[in-house]
Amino acid sequence: MNSLDWAVLIGYFGVMVAIGVWSHQRVDDVGDFFTAGGRMPWWLSGISHHMSGYSAVMFTGYAGIAYQYGITSYVTWSFPIAIGIAIGARLFAGRLNRLRSRLHVASPLEYLKSRYNLPTQQALAWSGVLLKIVDVGAKWAAIATLLSVFTGLTLNQGILITGAVTGVYCTVGGLWADALTELGQFVIQLLAGVAMLVTVLAELGGVSALWTVWDRLPDGHAQPTVGPYTLTFLLAYLFIKTFEYSGGMWNQAQRYMATRSAREARRSARLSAVLWFVWPAVLFFPMWVAPLLVKAEKPDASDSYALLTERLLPHGLLGLVIVGFFSHTMAMCSSDANAISAVFTRDIAPALPKLGARARGWSHRAGLLAARLSTVAFLALSMAIATQVNSPTFKDIITVVIKWVAGLVGPISIPFLLGMVPRFRRSGPTAALVSWAAGLFAFWLTNYGLAGVQLQIQIVAPVATSLVLYVLIGYLKPEDTPERDAVLARINPDDDDDGDGGGPGGAGAAARPSTSCSRSART
């Protein structure tokens, strides 16, 4: 990098901070901070949903997979995510929006206290927060790895810089800042991705390289499933990502909650699905053909894309692509920080022995201060974890992302998402807690208790265990009650009244106390 590249990077950081400061003016209470007051346009929600779904891990871990195995990086990663989001648009997006507009909650998990009970809510909240600290730590490590290639900064220095800038804008501006910076980041990534594609095609002889280059690549590069990424892995990943990207990752649920109506939430989901289907293919092509242009130095080839950009791009444009790396990571990490802050301040803090009474009585100002402080705390913890991501416990970045996140998000998301669907009304607290605990045990058993377990089994076993037990226990030990049925009735109105968000269930309703969810359940 030279001075021009640094100017582009520093300018990007400055714009992100400026957006956060501007968004601060739109945040009056926790409803604005966590769900944008229910006023976010569907197209902005869709772009934000897409951008908050992946990070610089794509340019490190998945770039290594693309370098070694070819198009399976797309077929077994972004393609099933696109399909999963499209399925979720029908099943979950509208229901998640009604959590805010009809139950008047600000956190995705607030409704669980009325749908199940307090222990269930706390189990899912605490385990999800701990998982996200590890997950976001992997994202910080990924972007710091790229930064070290280009600038020579150490891993810890890179983590500190990116974490500090992200902390400023997402702490002061809340979800509005997240969404608006993600829109800007999407535009930057669009320019950088297209520039990289055009440069690579020029290096390989022109547009015809799109269909003529495959014979020159290593064997298997054009196979949709290869190596450890088999058809079984693809199906397992589709199964998991349907839950994860439809709201199992709480930051994704917030995007649906932030729109004006259930109808707009579904439109938001469909836009995100289209973007996931098209855009990653554009980003992946340079990674697929990288073996013809550079030689990776790391065993997992996670440095291949960084080496490619250094070789091909002129200064200034190189800085823009580096900004593109940052844009994805900062989008995901800031959105996760906002979601975790919502869960802590709205779900965990009110249930703590000493803090609970005070938290339940927080004023708008005190609640907003708690939200910002918990956001800072989450970012600091995840940054500390990032410094250990390559330790023997976590092994490497891609292990954390594929195994830990994909394996553990299922047991958390099954009771959360299926709890909104009337078909599963018989599944109550017992089904939720047993399925959650058994899923976590299945993760430990397949990853650490048994040797030689295939990757696809490690990934699918936790969520499959949770799903089977959640349904089976609900059938054998039904726990549906009039109060729980009332909660479901509010999330699933017969007339599907998807208004513009005005009135009692409209914009700003998320700012109301979470106890209104309990009142709704008793009406």
Automatic annotation (TrEMBL):
Superkingdom to which the source organism belongs: Bacteria
Single Gene Ontology MF annotation: symporter activity
PROSITE patterns (alphabetical): NA_SOLUT_SYMP_3
UniProt key word Translocase: no
Pfam families: SSF (PF00474)
Gene3D superfamilies, per the entry: Sodium/glucose cotransporter
Ranges that cross the membrane: 6-22, 42-65, 71-93, 123-147, 159-178, 190-214, 226-250, 271-292, 312-331, 366-385, 397-418, 430-451, 457-476
Record key words, sorted: Cell membrane, Ion transport, Membrane, Sodium, Sodium transport, Transmembrane, Transmembrane helix, Transport
Region feature Disordered, mapped onto this chain: 486-523
Broad class of the protein's primary localization: membrane
GO BP, sorted A to Z: sodium ion transport
Compositional bias per record (Polar residues), positions renumbered to this chain: 513-523
Subcellular location: Cell membrane
Database matches in PANTHER family: LD47995P-RELATED, SODIUM-COUPLED MONOCARBOXYLATE TRANSPORTER
Protein name listed in UniProt: Na+:solute symporter
Source organism: Streptomyces rimosus subsp. rimosus (strain ATCC 10970 / DSM 40260 / JCM 4667 / NRRL 2234)
